[in-house]
């Protein structure tokens, strides 16, 4: 039975790493004292060790031990044996490239589908979708595929935000980018604002946090959904 | 002898399509009345025909005829015979995917290296660099490679901008993204602000327009260069 938290961000403005969601995480990971951390997305290019320390500092507050997957001889077995998994944010291309390189896409999908609790933030949430084609990240490495874990039947756009109303910048808004995506792809996209997350529990997929989320379906006007709404019908 | 304009954007705030650079383009394309337009980047997913009309409307003001490459039976021959080439902006992934699909990377590189004037804006500028790994665009299609035309010995970041100083958004700034790029890649990146362009003329590469550009070299503090500075030493 799937049990997945798909969070827009690890950190909200003016708050510490994972601080806004720690109470939720204490409940979510209540059945394990140890969490397998996948630090491959390397935000700002930091090392796997340093990123794991950041995660450990946050999880110490709810008495969890964090083990970086890079410290295991066999990462496939590490995932199979994990009682809880956290995939942190950073660069989605770097993350998915490492998952392919280490042969972890299949085992991650299987293990999480079978019920191991999975927390993703930002890039770690992006990869829960059908593919990474709605990431906001710069494509700094070329991965063997854009296909992702397919744990939900749509795509995720984390850190979703509206355009700056007074901006003079001519780059595309997030909404324009997702509309372009739908010229070439048909799956729905869930725009998750910072502070929101999806909770996948068995067949239910519920929006959590205090904010609405923006849903993009091909050939439809985008619309908002409220917290506690189930969106498992989207596909 | 190379003759290339690499523009950050087609359009600056409060001005029409290509309007800010039309006088320059009249000079740049002075030896031809016809321009081959490559509309593959499809901004907002518009059709090749409609995008070509947009380009034609602008170029009509300097008495040039615009021919969309999609109207030719053989796009390779269209490029070889062109007297001037314009690759418009839109989505860099869609653009490079179509160039690979139609087998045009090699012939574009050769034709432009041999002296056919080439104008790129935004995505059309991105592809002048070594690869597209510093595009700002959403990866809405999976291209067979991120390698680009390699017409200059560095990468381009168009629409370059500073972070919003009062933003509460936790997504990465442009500068953070380029720093992440340099954890995995070594070539310099030229951050071109909207209204700036590079003019490649034989071996010289000169910044043009009224604004400075920001240069990112691996293991160096980023720095600004002034207009009229030659940056052909960057590699």
TrEMBL record, chains A, B:
CDD domains: GAT1_Peptidase_E (cd03146)
Catalytic EC class: hydrolase
EC number(s) reported in the record: 3.4.13.21
Predominant subcellular localization, coarse grouping: cytoplasm
Molecular functions per Gene Ontology: dipeptidase activity; serine-type peptidase activity
Reaction(s) catalysed by this chain's protein: Dipeptidase E catalyzes the hydrolysis of dipeptides Asp-|-Xaa. It does not act on peptides with N-terminal Glu, Asn or Gln, nor does it cleave isoaspartyl peptides
Localization: Cytoplasm
Biological processes annotated in GO: proteolysis
One annotated Gene Ontology cellular component of this protein: cytoplasm
InterPro entries: Class_I_gatase-like (IPR029062), Peptidase_S51 (IPR005320)
Record SUPFAM superfamilies: Class I glutamine amidotransferase-like
Record keywords, A-Z: Cytoplasm, Dipeptidase, Hydrolase, Protease, Serine protease
PANTHER family from the UniProt entry: ALPHA-ASPARTYL DIPEPTIDASE, PROTEASE S51 ALPHA-ASPARTYL DIPEPTIDASE
Family: Belongs to the peptidase S51 family.
Protein name in the entry: dipeptidase E
Gene field: pepE
């Amino acid at each position: 039975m799937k049990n997945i938290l798909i969070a827009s961000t690890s950190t909200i403005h003016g708050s510490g790493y994972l601080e806004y969601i720690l109470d939720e995480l204490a409940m979510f990971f209540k059945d394990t004292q140890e969490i397998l951390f996948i630090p491959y997305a390397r935000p700002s290019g930091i090392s796997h060790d340093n990123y794991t320390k950041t995660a450990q500092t946050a999880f110490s507050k709810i008495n969890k031990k964090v083990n970086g997957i890079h410290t295991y001889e066999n990462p496939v077995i590490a995932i199979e044996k994990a009682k809880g998994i956290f995939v942190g944010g950073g660069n989605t291309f770097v993350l998915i490239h490492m998952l392919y390189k280490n042969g972890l896409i299949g085992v991650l999908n299987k293990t999480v589908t079978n019920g191991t609790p999975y927390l993703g933030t930002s890039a770690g949430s992006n990869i829960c979708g059908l593919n990474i084609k709605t990431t906001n990240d710069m494509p700094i490495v070329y991965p063997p595929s854009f296909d992702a874990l397919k744990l939900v039947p749509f795509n995720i756009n984390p850190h979703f935000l509206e355009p700056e109303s007074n901006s003079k910048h001519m780059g595309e808004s997030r909404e324009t980018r997702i509309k372009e995506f739908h010229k070439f792809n048909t799956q729905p996209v869930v725009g998750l604002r910072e502070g929101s997350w999806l909770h996948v529990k068995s067949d239910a997929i519920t929006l959590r946090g205090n904010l609405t989320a923006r849903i993009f379906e091909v050939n439809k006007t985008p619309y908002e959904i409220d917290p506690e709404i189930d969106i498992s019908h989207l596909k």
